[in-house]
Amino acid sequence: MTKADRRTAVIIEDDPDMRAVIVEVFEGAGFDTVAVADGEQGVHEVVERDPDAITIDISIPGIDGFEAARRIRAASDAYMFIISGRSDEVDAVLGLSAGADDYITKPFRPRELRARIDSLARRLERQEKAAPAGSRADAADVLAHRDITLDADSRMVTLADDDPGLTRSEFDLLTALLRTRRRVRSKAELARMLRGDASDDTYVSDADERAVEAHITNLRRKLGDSSAAPRYIETVRGVGYRLTDADGETAAAAG
Q: How far apart are CA 187 and CA 213, in angstroms?
């Protein structure tokens, strides 16, 4: 990767020691970095620089991390990590609901963050290889279910001709479900897919599975779907998720 091709990360973190750690990990992974200490400046830098990745601490001066995430998500589809000292599950769900793709609690080991950054880099590389500049989308990569149409190459999705505004992770989950349709995808399988893991036996934590649940909840909300009477995504209790039967009624599946 040449200097011109290097990816960029915007880091929004008010603790100087933690900021330095995050910068070091991203730069070690080949990213250029821009580090700021408050939410307003962070939003400004994201809009100006159009980065590939963003990290946000919840407890930052000015607007908090949740509000910064919402403003950023309205302007950018970059992969967003919330890195926070709050380990409460409610905060993780709020962070993912605000548009984050991943939630990491402090303290964390630098190699944990590096592993997630490497997974992100693999995802970005796959997307770039799948859709070379100037190429036409293969019809096989246009997926549909009821009134959802998704173009995997251009990474565009429409719901009854409207853009539901999906995050990267929501888009990838919807793509995975559209590809396998009525086959059930487990939460662990979907978590590995989001991480870019090719192996079926890598460890998946409870937090990883809860993140998938939160992303599916957000995806359903944006699609106007319901877990109690699903039109698009059906929960298979104790297992995972699959598409509803487009040609018939789907039994309600709580969860």
A: 8
> What's this model's pTM, rounded to 2 decimal places?
0.76
For the domain 3-129, what is the CATH superfamily, name and number?
Answer: Response regulator (3.40.50.2300)
Nearest CA to 85 out of 2, 18, 29 is that of: 18
Residues 52-72 have a mean pLDDT of 92
- Would you say domain 133-243 falls under CATH 3.20.20.10? no
Task: Give the pLDDT confidence score for residue 140 in this predicted structure.
Answer: 57
pLDDT in tens, 78-136: 999 999 887 777 788 888 888 898 888 888 999 989 988 998 888 788 777 765 544 44
pLDDT tens sequence across 154-165: 889 999 989 998
In DSSP terms, 7 is beta-bridged to: 31
> Residue 35 and residue 22: Cα distance in Å, rounded?
9
**Per-residue pLDDT, 133:** 47
Domain with CATH 1.10.10.10 in the chain: 133-243
Indicate left, alpha or beta for 165 from its phi (over 0: left) and psi (-120 to 50: alpha). left
